Amino acid sequence: QVQLVESGGGLVQPGGSLRLSCAASGSFFKINAMGWYRQAPGKERELVARITRGGSTNYGDSVKGRFTISRDNAKNTVYLQMNSLKPEDTAVYYCNINYNWGLDYWGQGTQVTVSS
């Protein structure tokens, strides 16, 4: 079994910052990629950022230059630093890991609300 513990969501004013964390634990022998996706009401889930075990990253177009993803392989934890937040960043943010021979697991999600 795999567990993902997400933290760091909340309410922030436009222009503000938040840092999300996602710690993985359980029965796996390696984590390949780790990432964050988000889903706003009435919209499809979309990629925010993803990072491979070797540190290669890719970002959704709407967050490039504002968000930074990083990971600590020793702690099986992925982080998402979100700066210059906009109201359109409001969504439920989901942590995702790809582990072992290509299995995927999703976290339960953490709400991020950007509003004045």
Please tell me about this protein's structure.
The protein contains no helices and 11 strands. It has 116 residues and is mostly beta strands. The strands form 2 sheets. Strands 2, 4, 5, 6, 9, 10 and 11 form a 7-stranded mixed beta sheet that branches. The protein has a 4-stranded antiparallel beta sheet with strand order 1-3-8-7, with no helix packed on it. Strand 9 and strand 10 form a beta hairpin. The N and C termini lie far apart (40 Å). The mean pLDDT is 96.
Task: Describe this protein with a few key phrases.
mainly beta; 11 strands; 116 residues
Précis, in short:
This protein has 116 residues and is an all-beta fold. 0% of the residues lie in helices and 58% in strands.
Write the SSE topology.
Blueprint: E1 2-7, E2 10-12, E3 18-26, E4 31-39, E5 46-52, E6 57-59, E7 67-72, E8 77-82, E9 91-99, E10 103-106, E11 110-114
Parallel strand pairs: 2-11
Antiparallel strand pairs: 1-3, 3-8, 4-5, 4-9, 5-6, 7-8, 9-10, 9-11
